[in-house]
Amino acid sequence: MNCVENMEYDEELDEFIFANDQRLIFQYETTKMSENGYVSTKRRYSCFECTGCPFQSTCAKGKDRKTITISLENQRQRKEIRERLQTKKGANYIANENVMWKVYLDS
């Protein structure tokens, strides 16, 4: 329920749809530059209709409302990687990685 990958994204409204058809609405965007010059942009989304929702205690984690902060660029990259790993080449890569980890852990 709390994983952004499990939420539907409405690109037109810039909102995430999650449990009980609630919406996380865009609030604001922040941009920071790290010491090594990497620029990251994060977006904050909040739900304003949590009162009375049966999922509030687990979803909003005891707070008044659910709020998430994400990087859309990071989400795009994660989606691309998931799609690559679902190809035959990706499946072979995962199989080879598992063999390498098994050898490493067994030594």
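Second entry:
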Amino acid sequence: MKHITNLKPSDFANGKGIIIDEVIKDIGSRLNYNRKEWNKQKIKEDEEIAKSLQDGN
């Protein structure tokens, strides 16, 4: 039987050479769109996309 350890996402990513600059946790919000952290990130990404479209990039 294989031993499994509990890795944090950052530990796994670092082992693969991926740098994580932000971790978002939303526990217990299910799929009801009351996901505070997820919605905050989504708005941030949408604003970045809109800005890049305005800049012509």
